[in-house]
Amino acid sequence: MSQTVCQAAVDLIKKAEGCFLTAYYCPAHVPTIGYGHTHGVTPADVGQKTITQADADLLLTQDLAMVADQVVQHVTVGLSDDQFGALVSFTFNLGIGHFAASTLLKKLNAGDYCGAANQFDVWVMATVNGVKQSLPGLVKRRAAEKNLFLQGTEVDDAMPQDVGCAGE
After folding, report:
1. What is the rounded distance in angstroms from the CA atom of residue 168 to the CA atom of residue 115?
2. Is the per-residue pLDDT at 168 higher than 90?
3. How does strand 131-134 pair with strand 125-128?
4. Per-residue pLDDT tens over the stretch 43-77
5. Residue 163: what pLDDT?
6. What residues act catalytically?
7. What torsion, rounded to 10 degrees, do the Cα atoms 17, 115, 83, 134 define?
8. How far is residue 111 CA from its own chain's centroid?
9. How does DSSP assign 36-99, residue by residue?
10. What is the pTM of this model?
C-alpha cells in the first residue's frame, strides 16, 4: 500500500536535486537526468539525452511512488506525513539498500524517533574522484530532511532546538 509523499518533501527533493533536462554526471559520478533520475541513464547519455520538463516531472512522480512503497515496506512504526516525506527524500537520494541497512531505520523501528532524527546528520559523505568527502549540498539536504522529520512531532515540541534531537 502506497502512502502519499507530502508536498514539503517533494519541494525539498526538487530543490536539492535541481532539474536538469540534459543527462549529466552527479557529484558521485552517476549518470542522471531530470530531478535525480538514474534508472536507465547511461554514460553514453551524458550530454546527449534530453527530456522535457513534463518528462522530468513524470519521472519524479514515478520515482517517488516507487521509493515511497520501499519506505513503507521497511518502516514498522507510525509516521507523520512529514516524517514519511523526509524518509522518502533520504531514500530517494541514497537508495533503498543504504536505507534498509541504516542505523536510522534501526533506531526508528525501535521507536527511537530522536535517535533516528540525529542519524540524518551522519549521511553527508559521498565518493568524489575516488575520495570520500563531506559535500555541502548533502549537509544542507540532510539538515532539511531532519527538520522535516521533526516538524510537528512530539519529539520536536518537547525539545529545545539546542538539546535532545538537535544534537545527541
Report:
1. 8
2. no
3. antiparallel
4. 999 999 999 999 999 999 999 999 999 999 999 99
5. 34
6. 17, 26
7. 0
8. 20
9. TB-TT--GGGTTT-B--HHHHHHHHHHHHHHHHHHHHHH--S---HHHHHHHHHHHHHH-HHHH
10. 0.88
Question: Whose CA is closest to 63, among 29, 97, 40, 30?
Answer: 40
Q: How far, in Å, CA of 99 to CA of 79, rounded? A: 16
User: Given a cut of 60, is residue 93 above it in pLDDT?
Assistant: yes
> Chain centroid to CA 62: how far?
15
Q: How far is CA 144 from CA 53, 56, 70, 121, 151, in A?
A: 25, 22, 21, 10, 10
- Closest CA relative to residue 167, chosen from 99, 114, 130, 129: 114
Counting residues of the chain whose pLDDT is more than 70, the rounded percentage is 89
Per DSSP, 104 falls in state H
Fold of 7-166: Lysozyme (1.10.530)
E strand or H helix at 108? helix 103-109
Residue where the block lists cell 548533502: 138
- At residue 114, φ and ψ (nearest 5 deg) are -65, -45
**Per-residue pLDDT tens for 137-158?**
999 999 999 999 999 665 544 4
